[in-house]
Amino acid sequence: MNRPFDYGDKVLVLDNKQRRYLITLAEGAEFHTHAGLFPHADVVGKPEGVTMKSTRGASYILMRPTLEDFVLEMPRGAQVIYPKDLAPICMLADIGPGVRVLESGVGSGALSMTMLRYGADIIGYEIRDDFLNRARANVKSFLGEGVLDRYNLHLRDCYEGIDERDLDRVVLDLPEPWQVVPHAMEALRPGGILVAYTPSITQAAQTRDAMANRAWSGTRTLEVLHRGWHIEGQAVRPDHRMVAHTGFLTVGRFLG
Ligand code: SAH
């Protein structure tokens, strides 16, 4: 990871107004803005953190994108789950190396790439083949071809059932997760965990209803509030604006 930039690398370019551009270094290519250009070839061999000057004197800072950067900048089909929820989902679902997860829907692959990064082995059900291809392309683009061994996507409606058995986890981001709860009870192993992300509290409540039986333990619903702070000299206070809502996280442990 700690090596100079080379062709094929993804690079996050920041201008002096903190505008962000995600590029992939390619032979013969140039980075263009209204403030001039620099050739990609000039970046090859430079370390992360380097400042590049454009032909018209603008300066840009170059770094490799983090997973958070990539999720925010990558091409999207479906709406993605945001970083503030991605990491808590992995904690609630106890994602780790070798954990077998059924994920549905797959959407743009933001949650997939986060769980793959944590080491999960994913079976993904998605009803739209354009999204399925988008997700696979995003995952491959950020994590490399090698992880595709742990990322098996199927064009399937998850409301119709889950074929796999003895799954460790079922992680859901689709409109009616309560329809999947009975299938999860067939597919999870005892001790397995279900997590559902839902924008509306009524969806969370309906999912909780479906889980309100003795097969489930420790069922709970929560939301993650993320308030940034402005810190500049003596001016130290919360930011005036925040994202007030994304989604609710519902989790429960399956007893068998
Ligand atoms: N978590 C994803 C976004 C998922 S958006 C991310 O972080 O990128 C919700 C997805 O669920 C959409 O792609 C939609 O096509 C899919 N979907 C909706 N109903 C479904 C169903 N019954 N079975 C499988 N996928 C479904």
Spell out the key features of this protein.
2 domains, seven-stranded mixed sheet, binds S-adenosyl-L-homocysteine, Vcp-like ATPase, Chain A, domain 2, 6 helices, 256 residues, Rossmann fold, 22% helix, single chain
Cα radius of gyration in angstroms: 21 Å
Query: What's the CATH topology label of the largest domain?
Result: Rossmann fold
Distance separating the two termini? 43 Å
Note the main sheet.
Answer: 7 strands, mixed
- Can you tell me the residue ranges where pLDDT is under 50 for at least 5 consecutive residues? none
Small molecules held by this entry = S-adenosyl-L-homocysteine
Query: Residue share in helices?
Result: 10-25%
Class based on secondary structure composition and strand pairing: alpha/beta
Shape: globular
Please indicate the percent range of residues in DSSP E strands (runs of 2 or more). 25-35%
Give, in spatial order, the strands making up the sheet with the most strands: 9-8-7-10-11-15-12
Question: In words, what does this structure look like?
Answer:
- By secondary structure, the chain is α/β, with parallel strands linked by helices.
- The protein has 2 domains: 10-65, Vcp-like ATPase, Chain A, domain 2 (Roll), CATH 3.10.330; 69-254, Vaccinia Virus protein VP39 (Rossmann fold), CATH 3.40.50.
- It has helices at residues 67-73, 83-92, 110-117, 129-143, 181-187, 201-210, and strands at residues 10-14, 20-24, 30-33, 36-39, 51-53, 59-63, 100-104, 121-126, 151-155, 167-172, 188-198, 216-222, 229-232, 235-238, 248-254.
- The strands form 4 sheets. A 7-stranded mixed β-sheet has the order 9-8-7-10-11-15-12.
- The mean pLDDT is 96.
- Bound molecules: S-adenosyl-L-homocysteine (SAH).
- The site of S-adenosyl-L-homocysteine has 22 residues, from helix 3 and strand 8.
